[in-house]
Amino acid sequence: MAIHVEGLVAIAFFYLLILFVGIWAAWKNKHSGEAQGTDRSETIMVGGRDIGLFVGGFTMTATWVGGGYINGTAEYVYLPDYGLAWAQAPFGYALSLVVGGLFFAKPMRSRGYVTMLDPFQQLYGKRMGGLLFIPALMGEIFWSAAILSALGATLSVIVDINIKMSVVISALIAIFYTLVGGLYSVAYTDVVQLFCIFVGLWISVPFALTNPAVSDITVTAVKQVYQSPWRGSVRKEDTWIWIDNFCLLMLGGIPWQVYFQRVLSASSATYAQVLSFLAAFGCLVMAVPSVLIGAIGASTDWNQTSYGTIPPKEKDEADMILPIVLQHLCPPFVSFFGLGAVSAAVMSSADSSILSASSMFARNIYQLAFRQSASDREIVWVMRITIFVFGGLATVMALVTGTVYGLWYLSSDLVYVIIFPQLLSVLFVKGTNTYGSVAAYLFGLVLRIGGGEPYLQLPPFIYYPGWTTEQRKHHITGEMEEIVIQKFPFKTVSMLASFLGNFAFSYLAKYLFESGKISHKYDFLDAVVSRHSGEIMDKTTLVTRGNNIGLSEMVSVKPRLSVTLAAAFTRRDTLPTETVEEEEEESSPDSSHHEEE
């Protein structure tokens, strides 16, 4: 396959466009937040909390709509054993944004948090915050690696160039403008990213639909022509797996820093909700061309195309159906424009995950757990270093790890079964404490890992009801192997067990310590007796907020050299006046657990 000059020109054009927009956004907003006295590090993480409706709507949509989203949707519609019925991402992530907007966006934004981990550290302490950082970090890094891996596959279809070099260049561009502009660069490049995807795919779809090799997709939706109907169906025995996967997308799509960095950058709590609803609509709209391309792939007689006689599914190239359709069913100038736009968009998708991971590390691990007296300049440099490190780590994994998708599947499951129930508890359930949080973490981890992960060849040690075995070809070695299929919705059950475990063990610990059945000196996590230790909050903050906690209940606190942790968690100067007044009437998540005491 020869190098296509037109393809290289198209890719170079779109890459330069996104790089230019990223640098321009950084330059345009370089003094943002200075007038309000906002720290530079916070501006990098959440902008100046002044992201408007237009840019905000695009960047919130881009939380999930990227290279993996459009490629994955087309792949599932195309696959004979799945079809549209199993392409759950569009509706799953759209509902995730709706649920996030209805229940999670307002409390998170109105309390002025900077990252998703802030409420965990505020309530459960810095050690628990560090534990919860692990699945959150894994999710972001593996997601970035999966995106870059998909990019390599897409580029291999367009031009016969060194794939490793193209992935490295793509990653360096994304890392560079994220280093320079932080969230502003991420947000403005998201606008270009979605525009590129929308225009690039919609230009290509009419040409692909009218190609002589493509049958009427309305016929192939319900009748078998070249393969089983692309509409797909869910067999009765697979119903619980379908429900489990849908709940994973809908609820597991909420507790991600990539989502909350957009929520927390909105100019108000109401705006954060509106942006979530707009993004839900955007998710559905952006999925339409991908669904059509998947349907076109399922309706094509590949004998009549330049692709060859063997269809993509039999070459194990179903995951590349979108670039294949654009390449072989569209005129060259259309396919290069579409593929160039999609490649640039895939590259741009990796930036927000890298920024999210570095934001959580710099703030919740480095600053709040180890260096509470760190200067703003020091935090900025830690962020810059970790953006480069995490970006490099994702790039290396994309190039050398054949199981990057398996790692992404497992880590996204862990976010669902560990972080989601804890987020639910910390925001809405009274009385949970660090002991319950640790128990919930272990419950979720053991129950999910116990179910195994076929993609990683991780055998189960818990066999849930309805399990069965299947012979499948391994995606790397090509050898047939016997794997265990869990038909039981064990991911959702693990999440519910984690949630109930948090509640039960929190109240058990509270009862045992407060009744005197266990001596107060054994409260080594300072979670019940010494509830408001220096690790979690400052005395004065609790008193000035008007909580009903007597001074005698609190242990003595050594004065801080820097701002108090409580002030670090809640930047009240960044909130609108009406929001502050509303919050005075509400108790903090920390205090609400002591209204009964």
UniProtKB/TrEMBL annotation:
User: Where located?
Assistant: Presynaptic cell membrane
GO biological process terms, semicolon-separated: acetylcholine biosynthetic process; neuromuscular synaptic transmission; synaptic transmission, cholinergic
Q: Looking at the record, which segments are called Disordered? A: 573-597
Regions crossing the membrane = 7-27, 85-105, 131-159, 165-184, 191-209, 239-259, 271-296, 333-358, 379-400, 406-428, 435-451
How does this chain sit within the bilayer?
Multi-pass membrane protein
Q: Which reaction does it catalyse?
A: choline(out) + n Na(+)(out) = choline(in) + n Na(+)(in)
What Pfam families has UniProt attached to this entry? SSF
Instruction: Say yes or no: keyword Glycoprotein present.
Output: yes
Q: Where is the composition biased (Acidic residues)?
A: 579-588
Quaternary arrangement and interactors, per the entry?
Homooligomerizes at cell surface. Interacts with SEC14L1; may regulate SLC5A7.
Q: Which PANTHER family match?
A: HIGH AFFINITY CHOLINE TRANSPORTER 1 (PTHR45897:SF2), HIGH-AFFINITY CHOLINE TRANSPORTER 1 (PTHR45897)
**Which protein are we looking at?**
High affinity choline transporter 1
Q: Which organism is it from?
A: Kryptolebias marmoratus
